[in-house]
Specification:
The protein has six helices and five strands; from the N terminus they run βαβαβαβαβαα. By secondary structure, it is an alpha/beta fold.
Length: about 140
């Protein structure tokens, strides 16, 4: 598997660090886009560079974490080719991969546990896109291409 891009703001910092360790325990490489402390930051400063790395295909998978997950998801989805999905339940993660071919998982640190986040990352990385009828729908996502 390719190197997984990962980033967070200050609210997601603890989760990001735990997820980097989790990925390493699975022999998966990660590229840390920051932040690097719990000092207050702006989520867009980390979400944009990560999303750009997905858009230009430097990385095929990304994980972003902030307090609600909304800020990083909205920011990442500004980039053509990025399909960032805000997920807070395992079923939503699976559907985001199966039906939307999501390539960035956005997690809400203030609403899920670290253990739930780890499980969601595992589902995200191991659930294939179903294609078929969903292919046509996913092809219509990028409005600016």
């Amino acid at each position: 598997m390719d190197t997984i891009a990962i980033g967070s703001d200050h609210a997601g910092f603890e989760y990001k660090e735990a997820l980097i360790q989790f990925l390493a325990s699975k022999q998966l490489l990660s590229k840390d886009f920051g932040t690097y402390s719990i000092e207050s930051t702006d989520y867009a400063d980390f979400a944009h560079p990560l999303a750009e790395s997905i858009a230009n295909q430097t990385h095929h998978w990304g994980i972003l974490v902030c307090g609600s997950g909304n800020g990083v998801a909205i920011t990442a989805n500004k980039h053509a080719g990025v399909r960032a999905a805000l997920c807070w339940k395992e079923e939503i993660v699976a559907l985001a991969r199966q039906h939307n071919n999501a390539n960035v998982l956005c997690l809400p640190a203030r609403f899920i546990s670290i253990e739930e986040a780890k499980k969601m990352v595992e589902i995200f990385l191991n659930t294939p896109f179903e294609g078929g009828r969903h292919e046509r729908r996913v092809a219509k996502i990028d409005a600016c291409i």
